[in-house]
Amino acid sequence: PTITLARIFIVLLVVPITLIFISVFYERNFYSPLGGGLIQDWNILSMFLVYPLIFSACLYACHRYDLYLERLKELARLDSKDSLASLNDQICLIEGKVFSRIGPWGSVRGYLTLLGLLFVAFNAYARFYHHDTIYKPDFWTSSLYPVTFWVTNLYTIIVWGFVLPQVTFAIVALIAALWKLSDAMDGEESIKLNILSSDRSGGLRPAARLASSLTYVLFPFQIQLIVYFLWRGEVNIPFTIGVTSAAIATIVVFTLPLMLTHATLTSAKSKLLKEVSDRFQACFDEIMYNKGLDSDKRDILLAQLSAYESIQKNIIRLAAIPFDNGVFGRF
Fold first, then answer.
1. How far apart are CA 97 and CA 207, in angstroms?
2. Nearest to residue 213, comparing CAs of 264, 254, 167?
3. pTM exceeds cut of 0.90
4. I need a labelling partner for 280 at 20 to 30 A (CA). Which of 47, 102, 199, 272 fits?
């Protein structure tokens, strides 16, 4: 619900502002002439910017997913009202399973939350007992200031224990829904491609925009990795794990929607080409084997053969993947 999402976004803004306010005016540890203070902790400061951006990008990706579904419905409507009704039922069925809070997918959501909380616990343990794992020696830490320390921990619990697992689940669930929808399109579901669409993808270009929007969710995390490297000044295990994970995740969330749409596009093209081929063959057989065909009827059939041949060429010209230089440039 929109109200719930708005509340989460407000929390992501209010807690950092509260922490900075406490640091500046209450515990007075925001800046020290000796170089210490909260301002030295670039990692937590970058999180204040990164996680509202990640959350906003996730909402944008969900919006792009809705636009993609609307385009599929438009193409299904071109086929028939029955196809549209069937597609609507299939979408409701898929989303009811994938986005459910119970069953297997509910368990996935729970496991991701558990992993996030374990990461919070690891971070707290490292700050107390293995300070050098995260910080450089003699770096400032909020551990000496109780209010700052607990507000910082509260923020890490919110972003790592709740927001990040939910965003991760949203990305996984969106891709899973696309996967199941692609399988349905390859089976009984039917859409009719717009072969003269300006996007040269039969009207399925929104899939490329969806793929781009999923990478936007990961982009703020990449910013934080850069900040962490500049702050730490060296490559360590957390940085290596973060860079590797970000690189793999970015490639996966970009390519999978395109590959799944490629399967949907290929299946729809095959069905359309078969329909054109059947009609072409029927006209051809009528010309070749109907001995009593008059000249006017023959001319009409020849014109139809020419039209079907032109339609076939236009279908074949459709891009196999809804992809262009603009989408690749944004990636």
1. 22
2. 254
3. no
4. 199
